[in-house]
Specification:
about 350 residues; globular; alpha/beta; Rossmann fold; five-stranded parallel β-sheet; two-stranded parallel ribbon; Helicase, Ruva Protein, domain 3; disordered C terminus; 13 strands
Amino acid sequence: MSTGQSLPEQAEEFRRRYAAVHEQIGRVIVGHDEIVQGVLTCLFVGGHCLLEGVPGLGKTLLVRTLARALHLQFNRIQFTPDLMPADILGTNIVMETPDGHRTFEFQPGPVFTQLLLADEINRATPKTQSALLETMQEGTVTIGGKRYELEQPFFVMATQNPIEQEGTYPLPEAQLDRFFFKLLLGYSSRDDLAEIIERTTRGTQVAAEQVMDGPEIRRWQRLIREVILAPHVQDYLVRLTLATHPGSQFAPLVTNQYVRWGSSPRGAQTMALAAKVRALLEGRYNVGFEDVRRVCLPALRHRIILNFEAEAAEIKPDQVLREILAAVSEKASDLRTLPATTPVA
């Protein structure tokens, strides 16, 4: 990445520009700093984000505010059971030329954008959900044997409601794996809720201002990959990933007891890139163990599948991952073991 600036200078500029985007989002969104940081992390590494929370917590508002703060094309798709793949991707339609000839012309769908809000993605059928697989992984759309490139950066922000199960279709594991982070949006605190009421019931309108565009985002995506990931830290995140695999030599007791399938290699890739972002924001140019630990839950919670015993005991992925973090040591030769009777915290 040749900009004429040293790495420390670029890192300092990144922190300043990151703070500018975060500030604009904060003008509209009250609280939820960890969620905002998670969304911005996905954006600056070129990943996609799945945001889960009950209705009315501001999931859609967060994405709309992000779109206003960034000079990117923005589209929103409201997923419903009757939505078809062509409604998302587009389709070839018959057009008649002035001389009477008929030709097929491609009409692009709403996925041809840079920032896509897939609202309530689990309300669409699996056939429609799968229409996003190619776009999320390859950044392309294939219609009628012809491949179309999407403009970069391309960022999918999907929301889903974890409570209502009527008329919903859970995302398959292959599609969940395409999301960089899964973020859980909880309720606002007492102070935040008071601030929300102050902002929204006095007739004042506050909007985010545009502070960043696509080329600048691509620039930061390249910078993040230059952050150093030392071999011993890389080995730690690799062992964390392998510790989610039942039967692995690195698997602690909690994995063998409650996990049916562990994380894919994308989990390790996600932790590496997200930890690099966190290191830059902390003013460092190399990844530390704490950076990996801080990004483990959003990176892996949707990449492990629990077994029936875990479901019967109402064990959640985050509980298992916290036990794995406690069991896997920073030292490669040391695996802390927990007794089989240890309750999952």
